[in-house]
Recover the amino acids of this structure.
């Protein structure tokens, strides 16, 4: 979506210009009959909502429901869109017209004001936190410079004052050593720090309304809680209203005063958060609330006996990465960063080992080491065999140990069809199969994960971009299963999915485990997913295991403060 948007605005069909008194004068924003269409296809279909000063409204729904488009339409940041309806905003006095009674200022219609006027409102009266800070922040400028630019353009401050204020704003969002971090580029910050920098930029001019588009989706559970607490604190301090766009119902319950539920471009239910959660009336709202992962696994002892050897066993595992040293010595040698330190764990037959921890804790590095995709010290045994230097030997292990990555869109080649993607492993591990036999196995594998040509004509000839996120993840699972592995490494397999799709994928994985006796190494920061799937769990922090054991013991009677922090942050 382009910031230099080409937007056509039409009158509200059938309603005409609303009377001056038809809007609630106490509201900061009144939206009536908002419609957004692209190329004749309507994606937002005449929605109404309002936000009072200082109020927190959550706009909830699955991907494709129209949430983000609604927020972007308010600031006319959608490209080639046709807009209709009204969005009356109580802007700063310099933009509004004096009311007929001489008291206060009449609101402006965000969909009708000239572009020059809207530029004055953007960033000053209404700010936005975009969903992915790594792509929203400019990689060529430091964090401090990007915040200072907002202050200079919107408030006309001198360069030195902009720099000082930017550092103070960074400090206010809880980033340590703010003066040094102001000189950092986006890639030099963690995900949580980048999100805090986006918040600092959005709040630079103390806006009346903050539009927050999935501000915590890509963050760890503890960082998510910190960002939520920060937004609540700053919202109270600045007295601003917040429109929160999210599909995270736990976040909504904890943060929002009111909630509006959106499905296929229509708001199907709205009201006070407590009332909607306690007495949901619309079937879609009920389905969203009921989408929490449910545990449905074969419990310990049914699949394997204590004497059964583990499928995967890890002992004294260590992974070190070279890092540059500061100063003159860095010209001649490298330092070392220990990503994993003496890690030991095992995966039993037909069971799931959950690996949980924050970003940077070593979860994914552990997975890469088990898959022999990074150099490591220590021992990794898969089905009684250790990784070696012989390619033929390793090939046999790889067939037994497959992986499903976090983001199916980036892990599936956009240049290959579904048939080519799923059949790729068969060509490597079963070269004796004919083309007809390979296709039969591909179709069987896709049917096993709920995809078949009967419901999706031309399935095998389609490309990844032609599928939804949940369907792409099913294709990724089919690709892994088609070579008949014994163990799947699942690296955040549901973090990029909506809650209802997440539940469907977890149910699929649970069914496959029951039917095939598969074992999983499940890497996630989602406590609810671990509770639903894992038999054993290891809690990682700074490359080390701080607590491990059966899921009921670790989560029910945790002994380490870090584990308790994770569980508390998850609610």
């Amino acid at each position: 979506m382009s910031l230099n948007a080409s937007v056509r605005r039409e009158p509200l069909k059938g309603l005409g210009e609303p009377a001056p008194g038809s809007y609630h004068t106490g509201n900061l924003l009144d939206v009536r009959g908002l419609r957004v269409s692209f190329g004749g296809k309507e994606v937002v279909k005449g929605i109404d909502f309002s936000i009072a000063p200082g109020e927190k409204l959550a706009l909830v729904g699955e991907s494709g429901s129209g949430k983000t488009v609604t927020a972007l339409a308010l600031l006319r940041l959608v490209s080639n869109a046709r807009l209709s309806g009204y969005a009356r905003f109580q802007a700063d006095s310099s933009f509004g017209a004096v009311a007929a009674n001489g008291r206060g200022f009449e609101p402006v219609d965000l969909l009708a004001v000239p572009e020059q006027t809207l530029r004055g409102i953007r960033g000053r009266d209404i700010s936005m936190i975009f969903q992915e800070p790594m792509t929203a922040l400019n990689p060529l400028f430091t964090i401090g410079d990007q915040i200072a630019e907002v202050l200079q353009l919107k408030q006309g401050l001198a360069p030195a004052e902009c720099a000082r204020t930017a550092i103070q704003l960074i400090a206010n969002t809880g980033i340590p050593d703010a003066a040094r971090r102001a000189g950092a580029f986006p890639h030099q910050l963690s995900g949580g720090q980048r999100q805090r920098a986006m918040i600092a930029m959005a709040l630079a001019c103390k806006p009346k309304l903050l539009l927050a588009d999935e501000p915590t989706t890509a963050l760890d559970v503890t960082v998510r809680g910190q960002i939520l607490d920060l937004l609540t604190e700053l919202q109270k301090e600045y007295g601003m209203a917040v429109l929160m766009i999210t599909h995270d119902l736990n976040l909504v319950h904890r943060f929002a005063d009111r909630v509006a539920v959106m499905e296929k471009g229509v708001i199907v239910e709205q009201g006070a958060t407590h009332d909607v959660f306690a007495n949901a009336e619309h079937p879609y709202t009920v389905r969203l609330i009921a989408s929490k992962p449910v545990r449905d696994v074969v419990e310990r002892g049914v699949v394997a006996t204590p004497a059964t050897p583990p499928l995967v066993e890890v002992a004294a595992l260590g992974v070190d990465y070279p890092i540059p040293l500061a100063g003159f010595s860095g010209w001649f040698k490298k330092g070392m960063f220990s990503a994993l330190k003496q890690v030991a764990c095992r995966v039993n037959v037909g069971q799931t080992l959950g690996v949980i921890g924050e970003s940077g804790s070593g979860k994914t590095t552990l997975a890469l080491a088990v898959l022999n995709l990074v150099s490591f010290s220590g021992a990794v045994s898969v089905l009684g065999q250790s990784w070696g230097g012989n390619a033929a030997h390793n090939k046999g292990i790889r067939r037994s140990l497959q992986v499903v990555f976090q983001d199916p869109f980036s892990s599936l080649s956009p240049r290959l069809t579904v048939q080519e993607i799923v059949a790729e492993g068969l060509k490597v591990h079963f070269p004796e199969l004919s083309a007809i036999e390979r296709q039969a196995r591909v179709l069987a594998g896709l049917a096993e994960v709920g995809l078949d040509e009967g419901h999706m004509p031309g399935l095998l000839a389609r490309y990844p971009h032609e599928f939804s996120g949940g369907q792409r993840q099913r294709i990724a699972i089919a690709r892994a299963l088609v070579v008949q592995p014994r163990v799947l490494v699942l690296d955040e397999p549901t973090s990029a999915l909506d809650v209802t799709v997440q539940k469907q994928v977890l149910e699929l994985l649970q069914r496959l485990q029951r039917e095939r006796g598969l074992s999983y190494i499940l890497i996630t920061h989602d406590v609810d997913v671990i509770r639903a799937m894992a038999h054993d769990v290891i809690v990682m922090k700074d490359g080390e295991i701080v607590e491990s054991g059966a899921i009921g013991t670790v989560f029910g009677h945790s002994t380490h403060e870090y584990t308790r922090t994770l569980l508390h942050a998850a609610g």
About this structure: The first strand starts at residue 7 and ends at 10. The two ends are 35 Å apart (CA to CA). The chain has three domains: 7-122+257-289, 293-327+334-383+486-571, 389-485.
